[in-house]
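Data card: per-record layout.
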Amino acid sequence: MTTTSPSTPSPPTSGPGPDDRSRRRRLGVVGAVVTLLVLAVGYTAFSSQPTAPSGAASSAAGSSNAATAFTATTLSGEKVSIPGGKPSVLFFFAASCVTCGSGAQALAEAQAGVPSVSYVAVDIDPSESEAVVRDFLTDNGAETLAFTRDTDAELAVAFKVTQLSTAIVLDASGAEVYRVVHPTTSKLRSALAEAGAE
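The structure for this 198-residue chain is written out next.
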């Protein structure tokens, strides 16, 4: 006579735990950034204009990005057009980017001092919902910024963005005059003065 030992029941599974969701989110962000970098490198390789080094005035100053015109929306629903006949600042970020919060705060502080400019936060992670973007802006005291989601990397490629937390200052015609990774309020204000902001 054979005896079998009772099998130990496995613990019930209730779906992915917080660690699994966090890991998947990190992988999604990494995938989005890698895709963005591949697209940006490919675009840059076929472009005749060199990109400006981080923190320096752009070599594309004087050339218009008219092909990259778009509209963003503030948390209160106000529409902001880029270019819109006045200087503007674009900030490329992902809500899951740990270092992007300080850049969003710098834009909000620059906006408080130079309100005659359009300030737009551009989320480049296609997995992040509008609610996640809104929470990111609110959590970083940047709820006055307009925002858009660049789910297909069209804007990131057009503006040759290869790093998260990149800020680009455009003049009133939409020509790039300055770009920096990890912007500060003082750098943005100086660049806005160069772009003709009052």
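Known properties of this structure: The beta strands are 70-73, 79-82, 88-93, 118-123, 146-149, 166-170, 176-181. DSSP finds five helices and seven strands in the chain.

See the next section for split statistics.
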